[in-house]
Amino acid sequence: MSLPRSQYDPRRVCVIPFNFESIPIFRKKRSLGVYVSGLLFGLAHWIFLDAAVLSAHAHPPPDAPYDTVPIHITFLDWIPGICSTLGLLIVNLVNKEQLIGEGGSFGSGEGGFVWRVRLFLFFGFALMAGGLAGSVCVLVLKYIVPQFDDYLYYGYANVAQNVLVMLSAIVLWIAQNTHDDDEYNYQLTL
């Protein structure tokens, strides 16, 4: 089966055209991306805070009421989430239009400015990657290796928090680079 030449665009990926512009919710891509990013960010911290509250109210098993709970969420568990959140803030504080240009030397001038912006952006991504790696290390070294099988949720919540914060940063980065048709377009005539 071949399509008529007038309906076929060789730049399209799919032969069947999908018109997302006809769906009203996709007309506000930027707003939708910001809301989804906020939802992911809130869900990330909700999951971790749920594990922290559960840890604070943990009781010994009923068959051994005089034992102590072997493990709790401490400040060590909070550090990866703090790093990922700071990385999200740093990445989304960078103006994307400043990344375009010649990345010359570190010195003064236009090339040095672009280089410093890229270094700042790299530092933000490194904080997020370090937060994710730290949460995996906490999961393995604090919960899996000592075989605290009943308390693995604390470590899984930490990893889930960092993954969701990274996804939130990606969605917000993409949403900041999209433009709605009717938003932020001002026609000034004199």
Automatic annotation (TrEMBL):
InterPro entries: UPF0220
Family: Belongs to the UPF0220 family.
Membrane topology: Multi-pass membrane protein
GO CC entries: membrane
Coarse class of the protein's main subcellular location: membrane
Transmembrane segments: 32-49, 69-91, 119-145, 151-175
UniProt entry keywords in alphabetical sequence: Membrane, Transmembrane, Transmembrane helix
Protein name as it appears in the record: Uncharacterized protein
Localisation per UniProt entry: Membrane
